[in-house]
Design brief:
The chain has 124 residues and is an alpha+beta fold. It is built from 3 helices and 6 strands, in the order βββαβαββα. Strand 5 and strand 6 form a beta hairpin. The longest helix has 16 residues.
Amino acid sequence: MNGFHFHLRTLADDTLIGCAGLFGIQWMHQIASLGIAIGDPAYWGKGYGTDGLKLLLGYAFRELNLYRVGSSTISYDIRSIKAHEKVGFRQEGIQRSFIQREGRRFDLIIFGILRPEWEALQTR
C-alpha cells in the first residue's frame, strides 16, 4: 500500500467537510506526499485545515514512521499557505506558472517537513 485516505468531519455534528491523505509513499526512503481539501467554503478559515494537517502529520511520523512529508498548494490559496506554515512546513520551492485556472497561470508552492522539525514543535 502506498497511500492512506481519510474523510474530514466536524466533531460537533459529524458533518463531512473534506478529505485528506498521504500518498506516493516510498517506504524505503520513509517519504510521502500529503493532500488535504475542505470542500465547503462555509468551513474555510475555521481551523479545520490546520487540525487536519496536524492529525495527518502525527499519523505520518508516529504511526507510519516516515521521515519526510511533502505538500504543495497554489500560490493564491493564502489560507492553505498559512496552515502549512503554522504546522511546521517549510517552503522548499516554487514551480512557476504551473497551474492554469480560468485562463490565468499560477505558481505552485512546494512545502516539506522533516520528522525532527515536527518533533521539535511537539515539545512547545
